[in-house]
Amino acid sequence: MSVAGEKGLTFFLKIFFKSFFYVLLQPKIRKNLMNWQQLLSTKRFGMEQYHAKHAGDRSEFQRDYDRLIFSAAFRRLQNKTQVFPLPTNIFVHNRLTHSLEVSCVGRSLGNKVAQKLGLGQGEVGSIVAAACLAHDMGNPPFGHSGETAISSFFSEGKGLILKNLIENENQWKDLTCFEGNANAFRLLTHQFNGRRKGGFALTYSTLASIIKYPFPSIEANEKKTKFGFFYSETDSYLQIANELGINCLDKTKNRFARHPLVFLVEAADDICYQIMDIEDAHKLKIISTEETKTLLLNFFDEHQCARRLEILEMVSDVNEQIAYLRSSVIGKLIDECTRVFAENEIDLLSGTYNASLIKNISENCVQAYKICSDLAFKKIYRSQEVIDVELSGYKIITTLLEHLTEAIFSPDKKYSQQLLMRIPTQYETAAPTAYGKIQAVLDYISGMTDVYALDLYRKITGINIP
Known about the structure:
putative deoxyguanosinetriphosphate triphosphohydrolase fold; 59% helix; mainly alpha; two-stranded antiparallel sheet; single chain
């Protein structure tokens, strides 16, 4: 047997015996628990008939990671806004760099959790790392304002006239509450025209690990319109949930528990966006150096602060000082979230754990994180630069939706024919239902980069002539 094969066998034996302990030794307590052996599946979505272990140095989950890295959809994240507009004079994060950093943190979280729980070093980290890469791939251009623009177009804009064409309330809710997380699941699993079955054909475990809200749009909270899969992908999610043994909380509403590794993906995202946004704000001079240092040092006790201040004295470059403190904070938060995950393993496996890991870290860290969040909302997310890009993005996406939906429902008009020629053939513009046609438009728009969306907007409005 190869070294890779021995490692794989050892890994799954550990999972088996852990599952054996859960199911047999404490049956009353563990009755409704999901088990790690089933949750960590290498079966690939859409390629189930080809399911087999590959020989070699890469695990199936590492193959997921590589497949995502080399995809065009992932590369396009380099030109999608994270928080700040993409300036030319200084480097701040875009969706690509954010996703790569989240993936690094996710791998560390996964490896540490696996080590604590005896799940096999490397495999869990690889699943979480791959899921972190994919977690933002369904987001439209211009950050969260892009999601708002799409939702508003159908809930209160010109798209309202299309409601009578939609078959059911579930489908309409998908449009009026458009969600990037659900769109990522569609992007990764849907068979677009000319593409293979299963979309990216990722493992079931990687796909399940990106579903933060495992229920359809019709079950989304009215104030926080988050959900995990569109009506069109319901069967795909149910197939994955059934295969992995994910607990169903309400069969009539298709509400499920989260896959436990979702909590690690969420924690990695929480850690990165909050701390990296503070560093970006410092680079853009939105917050001062001293204020930034104070924010980051708040995460440490008096002894830990003294140690870090000693190290800061060895470095004169201000940006390097901030980078050191930022890395120290990320390291501490990784340890904290690992501890919370391990301490709540039973609740995570039963589906009864409902809070994010970051909310249950030590009190000192919770307070420091809250201070960062409050400042970020006031000085960063509501800064003029951010609001300006949101306003522009809103107008661009709304205009594209107006033109493209009109074209797709009036394909015989001359202008419509010209405009439809811009849409790549992989998108199902000739879908038999109105819902399918609209989804084709949303697939096209949500896959655009900021620059591509702006360029197309200028061309169809006549602002720019090629």
